[in-house]
Backbone:
């Protein structure tokens, strides 16, 4: 039995080798023919990537944008499957600038753990996934960060009936049960905060944010902690009529600058995204918004250049001259985007870190000239 | 339908000898009076009495808790209702939704015809139905009294409960001979459910988004896009059942059953790719490349296989098959169309298996037909997968939600089963190399948690792929599911293989069967029959394991319920409502599968023969 098998194998191998030797010339032929499977076609598109991602995106005609897909007010998936929110609008703004069409976006919903891989493997061109700009992500992980579009910071929320006020601090936390999501930096921040103040807290973590809020509402937690933006949203939407929730301390316990994130060492692509963000901010400084924006030639100075009039600089960036005019017209300026998405959850620009620099906030753009 | 049922009973009894016992009625047991029954079953001694009281109290408390949760005015059930489309198909474009209904309608049509042809359903005694209704009515009455309803709601529910109890009382004393088919009962229940869509205001089924204000239905009614298609679906299912019962007498039944089974296996592939995905075929490429390749392989392969299956071919055939296999592997060294490589390899395996199926002319022609059928399916699949879809959605894929749960489940089962059988055969093989490879694979996969494999395939594999090769996340995790389930199925099948006695092997060898013939015609059929219960358990487990997709962020049924809907500004804090709905759907489907498997076990006579 075994010897037969070995004999057979030997014969097969010999024939195969001969066949391969003779056939190698013939088999060159189909290779030369237009042999294009879908995989090969994709390879063709990726070839452009020797230049910048900007050229790839323009050749492809759609922007692949990584979002969370389930972050209240930042990127929500609506009942009909459309994606809306602050981050989603910035995806649309980049598409309007790069492709001239704010709807030419393919949204990819990413979890926190897969977001950077998605950029590295080329699945998405840019991340608008409330990603905090940190040193390790900027260096180790191989990401580059665009201008911050939203300045967030971790805060805590407790009940007024438990004696918490807007002026409460770490010292008032002694013995409190603090709830937050598992596996995020908020967990680490609050432990460090309590440790520095020398108080003991009991930390409880939950898998999704909705679950720990449920814990807070049911009374299983005394304190809930996460980014201030989410705290305000929950207070507006979920505070029962007979309770008073308070957010403290006034100065957040951590800095969470959120903004666009992309792969490193691609200046052309980075410039396109950064200046899209700056354009929304500059337009806001001049009070030019979605409803009153005119053609670039109808303005003077900085706005004229920015919106595609004389002396514009967009064509040197590889964009069309009216790229930022399209951004303002199709998506809006910073205030439009902010108010549309964040006002419904109780977040207002006035007096926050996200007010313009002239109003004492941090939102600032370099001059367009 | 009653006559249909008795016929099927007759068929069974003629099939097996032991079934004769079924026709003998069991001795009648005198019915206990209610007090006697209580005493015998619930209060037989002190300990049991205490246990009864405690568990009754616990059950009542749980029911009350659940009801107060469900009917609490704070519950946002509109979150689930409004997002029903998101839950079911994620973002499939609205104007193309007819495709989904066509697919579902076709499957229901097949179901109706099949139910008629296989004479499904059993007869249920009316008195039994009466008893069940009594129990149901009593439960509703009890639940109504426990639930924190308003006065008006309490009265409505009490009337419903009393109505059901009344019907139960009327039916209970009916004679033993009066029966009704379980199918009639089932379709009656569906009819009621669908009628209720038109009558009962289920809640506020509309949504308003700031960007595109849109109202699906008037507040308090069910959207027309929900109730109309479901009504049509019901009519389709009923009509196809009657059509099936009408034509089954007129045509050859065995043949039509075979055609039906084949349609069941193939239709998901065609519906998925033709109807749901709507591939944007490039006619020029199709005519110049895909169809010629298909014709070449079908014709050349058929001629070759017809020749290879001649009984007198001998050693020559094996040498040629091995040569094709070698050429098949060699194609990977050269740049050429993937489809050519795959088809060459498949041809090699068909050629290698040819001696097993050699014989007279009809057998050889049948083998060739199988080859052509596989060519049709393979070429269609490869072409359809490589063609871009016209169904463009915002997300990653053309479909999501419950649909993706079902799709991954279907592909996993269809592909993991043959792989599992192969692994089991390899593990019991005489060749050490097969045994070692298979054992290592199975033990490695079984030693790693499924979630690890899923994370590996979703996060790491895209980084390992060579340039230009692209694997969607859905495809990657489907592969992960397939290898995981195949390893477990392999162990189930191996258990079955070991149950086939030595005598069967020897008998097969004694009549001169080759190893392959012995395996395919003697050992495997017996082994698979034994392995049915554990395999069904594995299938149900697989269905539930698809919930793990939520952890790696694929928009499956659970993820949408748990993360996406609570992430909408309007519906913050609606996790528990959605999760309750999702668990109900999982419960219904798993229960149905488990019931179906009990039927299959009975059918193959497991534990009786």
Residues:
């Amino acid at each position: 039995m075994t010897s037969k098998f070995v004999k057979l194998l030997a014969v097969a191998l010999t024939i195969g080798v001969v066949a391969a030797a003779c056939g190698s010339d013939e088999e060159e032929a189909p290779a030369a023919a237009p042999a294009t499977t879908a995989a090969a076609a994709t390879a063709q598109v990726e070839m452009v990537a020797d230049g910048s991602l900007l050229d790839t995106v323009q050749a492809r005609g759609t922007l692949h944008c990584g979002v969370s897909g389930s972050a209240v007010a930042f990127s929500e998936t609506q009942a009909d499957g459309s994606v809306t929110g602050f981050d989603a609008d910035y995806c649309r703004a980049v598409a309007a600038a790069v492709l001239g069409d704010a709807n030419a976006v393919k949204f990819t919903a990413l979890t926190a753990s897969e977001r950077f891989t998605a950029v590295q493997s080329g699945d998405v061109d840019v991340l608008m996934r409330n990603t905090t700009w940190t040193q390790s992500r900027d260096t180790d992980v191989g990401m580059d960060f665009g201008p911050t579009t939203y300045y967030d910071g971790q805060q805590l929320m407790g009940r007024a009936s438990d004696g918490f006020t807007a002026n409460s601090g770490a010292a008032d936390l002694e013995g409190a049960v603090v709830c937050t999501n598992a596996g995020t930096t908020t967990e680490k921040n609050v432990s460090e905060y309590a440790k520095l103040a020398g108080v003991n807290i009991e930390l409880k973590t939950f898998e999704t944010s909705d679950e720990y809020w449920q814990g807070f509402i049911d009374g299983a937690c005394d304190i809930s902690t996460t980014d201030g933006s989410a705290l305000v949203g929950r207070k507006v939407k979920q505070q029962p009529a007979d309770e008073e929730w308070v957010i403290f301390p006034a100065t957040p316990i951590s800095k969470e600058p959120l903004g666009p994130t992309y792969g490193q060492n691609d200046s052309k692509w980075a410039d396109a995204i950064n200046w899209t963000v700056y354009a929304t901010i500059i337009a806001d400084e001049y009070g030019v918004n979605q409803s009153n924006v005119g053609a670039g030639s109808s303005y003077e100075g900085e706005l004229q250049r920015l919106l595609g009039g004389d002396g514009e600089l967009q064509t040197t960036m590889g964009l069309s001259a009216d790229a930022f005019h399209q951004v303002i017209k199709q998506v809006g300026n910073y205030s439009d985007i902010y108010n549309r998405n964040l006002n419904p959850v109780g977040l207002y620009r006035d007096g926050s870190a996200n007010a313009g620099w002239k109003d004492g906030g941090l939102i600032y753009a370099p001059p367009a000239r | 339908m009653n006559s249909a049922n008795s016929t099927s009973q007759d068929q069974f009894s003629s099939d097996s000898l032991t079934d004769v016992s079924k026709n003998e009625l069991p001795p009648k047991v005198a019915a206990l009076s209610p007090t006697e029954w209580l005493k015998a079953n619930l209060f037989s001694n002190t300990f049991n009495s205490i246990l009864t009281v405690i568990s009754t109290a616990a059950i009542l408390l749980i029911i009350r808790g659940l009801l107060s949760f469900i009917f609490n005015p704070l519950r946002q059930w509109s979150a689930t209702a409004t997002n029903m489309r998101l839950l079911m198909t994620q973002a499939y474009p609205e104007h193309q939704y007819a495709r989904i209904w066509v697919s579902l309608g076709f499957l229901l049509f097949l179901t109706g015809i099949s139910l008629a042809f296989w004479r499904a359903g059993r007869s249920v005694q009316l008195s039994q139905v009466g008893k069940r209704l009594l129990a149901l009515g009593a439960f509703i009455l009890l639940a109504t009294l426990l639930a924190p309803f308003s006065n008006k709601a309490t009265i409505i529910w009490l009337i419903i409960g009393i109505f059901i109890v009344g019907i139960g009382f009327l039916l209970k004393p009916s004679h033993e001979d009066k029966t009704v088919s379980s199918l009639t009962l089932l379709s009656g229940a569906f009819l009621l459910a669908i009628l209720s869509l038109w009558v009962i205001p289920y809640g506020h089924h509309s949504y308003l988004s700031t960007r595109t204000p849109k109202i699906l239905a008037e507040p308090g009614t069910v959207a027309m896009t929900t109730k109309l298609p479901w009504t049509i679906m019901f009519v389709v299912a009923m009509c196809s059942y009657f059509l099936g019962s009408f034509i089954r007498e007129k045509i050859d039944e065995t043949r039509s059953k075979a055609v039906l089974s084949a349609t069941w296996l193939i239709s998901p592939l065609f519906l998925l790719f033709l109807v749901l995905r709507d591939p944007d075929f490039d006619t020029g490429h199709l005519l110049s490349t895909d169809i010629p390749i298909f014709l070449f392989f079908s014709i050349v392969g058929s001629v070759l296989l017809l020749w290879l299956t001649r009984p007198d071919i001998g050693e020559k055939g094996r040498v040629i098959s091995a040569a094709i296999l070698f050429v098949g592997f060699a194609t990977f060294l050269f740049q050429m169309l993937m489809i050519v490589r795959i088809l060459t390899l498949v041809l090699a395996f068909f050629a290698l298996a040819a001696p097993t199926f050699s014989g007279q002319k009809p057998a050889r022609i049948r083998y060739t037909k199988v080859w052509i059928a596989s060519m049709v399916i393979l070429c269609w699949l490869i072409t359809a997968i490589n063609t871009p879809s016209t169904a463009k959605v915002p997300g990653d894929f053309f479909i999501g939600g419950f649909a993706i749960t079902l799709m991954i489940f279907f592909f996993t089962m269809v592909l993991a089963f043959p792989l599992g059988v192969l692994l089991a055969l390899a593990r019991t093989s005489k060749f050490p190399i097969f045994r070692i490879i298979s054992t290592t694979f199975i033990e490695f996969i079984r030693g790693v948690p499924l979630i690890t494999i899923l994370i590996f395939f979703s996060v790491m594999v895209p980084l390992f792929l060579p340039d230009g090769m692209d694997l969607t996340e859905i495809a990657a995790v489907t592969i992960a599911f397939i290898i995981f389930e195949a390893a477990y199925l392999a162990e189930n099948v191996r258990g079955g293989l070991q149950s086939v006695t030595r005598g069967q092997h020897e008998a097969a060898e004694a009549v001169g069967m080759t190893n392959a013939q012995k395996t395919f015609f003697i050992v495997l059929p017996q082994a698979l029959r034994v392995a049915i219960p554990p395999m069904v358990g594995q299938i149900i487990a697989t269905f539930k394991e698809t919930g793990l997709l939520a952890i790696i962020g694929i928009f499956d049924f659970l993820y949408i319920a748990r993360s996406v809907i609570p992430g909408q500004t309007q519906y913050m804090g609606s996790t528990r409502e959605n999760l309750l709905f999702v668990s109900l759907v999982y419960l219904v489907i798993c229960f149905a599968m488990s019931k179906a498997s009990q039927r299959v076990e009975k059918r193959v006579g497991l534990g009786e023969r």
Notes: Confidence is low (pLDDT under 50) at residues 5-49 of chain A. Residues 154-248 of chain A form a domain with the D-Maltodextrin-Binding Protein; domain 2 fold (CATH 3.40.190.10).
